[in-house]
């Protein structure tokens, strides 16, 4: 009878379930300016209309991660309001850039379910897609979360674990229509390093650190209309700190990676991602990247680089400890493809 | 001879006085994006151009409260710079939505004066109206504030207490031209509850809490060009905290009320409002609503709901204590009309 | 071999060196809204399209200091990443207003070099110019910074100290095309004081104080894509505080100066400027101005006023102590020309 909703619990999901997420969103130069204020984002393609036009796009899109966060934010009330943990990402693809004036909406399909052995929770896999106002797919990705059961005695569903690709195959990467890095201006983009300059196995320390504040991550998380209570309600912990949205760490690390990867303009795919440890106000985020793979594309002058992006609290060279777990200072381990000039 | 102004004192006002407030303001997608970053605002009509068009509007307006805060902010240097207290609101009406590109200006008329018995201050009532660049009225409201006297020996003016409606009569509510909720999409708006689903006396706990930070309320208050010193100057209190603009609490509570009132799209009138107690950084704002009345409108598919919106520090079910005063944890008691799909 | 850069050191500069700064930037209403949220900026010309049109401009430009910060921010990775101190400004001129939709880029020429006697660092003078997407000059200025040497044994360059004007000559001030204050609306601008009302030697206390927060100055500094580590990394000081970008203090003080200088609409030139002492989170910034000079211009109704703008931590009437050094509470001493209605 209550008008408010407590969100879905594990037993509220079934395989094949289609969920239309609420609150479509029109983006403008306002979201873009805020992104530049919240993160040290300097990628030229997302900063200048002129630069974007020189790369074959009609104008400068908003950062790929703005699209990701908006599409993701809409899923929170339906997917992760009662999530115990955000377990992973796979098969993320960016299909079309988002431009000021575009309106985004999200839709998810439940593609996997597995009750935990303790009977109190289970894992839900969803494939989420974001579309623009013309119905064109902007991005899609699979995410899986651990969700509490409302009733521990509810019957366990049949276990369905989706078969997910470990890596988005490079020959299936979508290059935005018209993208052309043949005349790429390396002076304006900030670094001379081309796709060909990066070797598999190469590691790049992104040097800078950013100490994060409560006001900032709450501004960011609200901007994406992400409603997860843990990010906003300081009464849940004795020290008043709020758990920082994992996407805030992704954007911070990605922006920090400009120093060494200035020409890694566009995110083309997310292969995998782990929010290894929680991030709190006062933490100083640092990042390093490792080149995992390289691939050519059919677009003129455009190569693809597969990167591991690791964010940590303070400097942390160790990714995992001897027991195979993430080092307690590691915040993020993201495996993704970028597009850059050959 | 000083170039700076200390603001008006009680004896500087007279009945019928017309005050043109300075600094007209053009709004853009920037103000809208910031509103979404500052408050957990998710009302679909203010989020998506497509959704707004499906409701008969030319595009998505900015939140009604953006218009209110901008119009209000302009009055501060003229009305409340020396205010001891912001005592109340009445007869607030929203006449036309504000769209990106619109320019707002404010004008007030003094409609009431009453010196306090202590001779040191008095109450000033003003009727303020906001207009857009076409001279069309965007909103108007009456507000009364207690203002200090510059000279305690100044003669008291004749007492004039305006006769104000306790409630804006529902048949005088202005429905924006073209607004039509006949084809309202309840999946995209976020909740299935229609006007007809709300019963008078029904109470809705909006569940979520937001812990507020100094940086956030100062960003918000400056955005509305509100110059009241108490919001910005941390040297006035030993703990460095700044008094939070009451309008910040209104917007936070209104945004929190999405959970349970997702379809209460537009604010049509403000009947009354009290900033019951001051709000400070570190407070966790929660909110509940009570349905006070229901009315039909002539617009297709559009009903009006009269709501009491109460914001408190932490959970607080009690509105007033036995002595008839607001509970010390109550921050806001707002009585307003919204428009929603029948 | 490293992909990241540690920035230039003193021995990396030579007289006549031309540096194209990376990451061009398109501005929108988003940057303008953020400026209004970050600073108590109320100048009518930068707030309202209507007001700007009544002054002969096509629409409301973004604040002059937005242009300055963006052009300056681009120079940081090339000029001041290893700066020990930002020593001064001279010959700053604002050539054309910046409008939403404009794209800015920066270019610098090294015009002076002087190794310090300790052999560990030196002073570098650069003349930086900002251009818009049409190649039109938006602003230019000279700045000099003390930069560390990478190798203390590197040979000292020939000393070249540029001959800089102590003041931008008023007859060389650029008045934006079309600017006309003949029909200036003093009610809408906020104060009645004209150019003719200000006397040389007059001092204006701007009354208000703003206590600054970490989140705010980091949002601002990132918005200008300023990458200087000291503003963001809280691990560099035991108290976690970050050094606040000097430009944040300039914008805060300039916005505070509205109270008493509401009609000092446009900045036309920066004659000199010193960041006298560092500013940190928790400081309460106050400001006062002194009228240094007055000049006529050829534009209708437009006069020029030369002002000293002093910002301090808390109230501080003393600019310099007996030993000729800035009082430790003084943050900024800026000498600049503004355009205002005669």
Total number of helices of chain A:
7
CATH topology of the largest domain in chain A: Thiol Ester Dehydrase, Chain A
Low-confidence stretches of chain A: none
Quickly count the domains of chain A: 2
The CATH architecture of the largest domain in chain A: Roll
Going by helix content, strand content and strand pairing, the class of chain A is: alpha+beta
Organism (chains A, B, C): Roseinatronobacter monicus
Pfam family, one (chains A, B, C): MC_hydratase
InterPro entries (chains A, B, C): HotDog_dom_sf (IPR029069), MC_hydratase (IPR048274), MCH/BMMD (IPR052342), Thiol_ester_hydratase_Rv0216 (IPR016790)
Protein name (chains A, B, C): L-erythro-3-methylmalyl-CoA dehydratase
Q: Topology, please?
A:
The structure is a homotrimer of 342-residue chains.
Chain A: E1 18-20, E2 25-26, H1 29-38, H2 49-54, H3 64-80, E3 83-94, E4 103-115, E5 121-131, E6 137-148, H4 186-189, E7 203-205, E8 210-211, H5 214-223, H6 246-256, H7 258-261, E9 266-275, E10 284-296, E11 302-313, E12 330-341
Antiparallel strand pairs in A: 1-4, 2-4, 3-6, 3-9, 4-5, 5-6, 7-10, 8-10, 9-12, 10-11, 11-12
Helix pairs in contact in A: 1-5
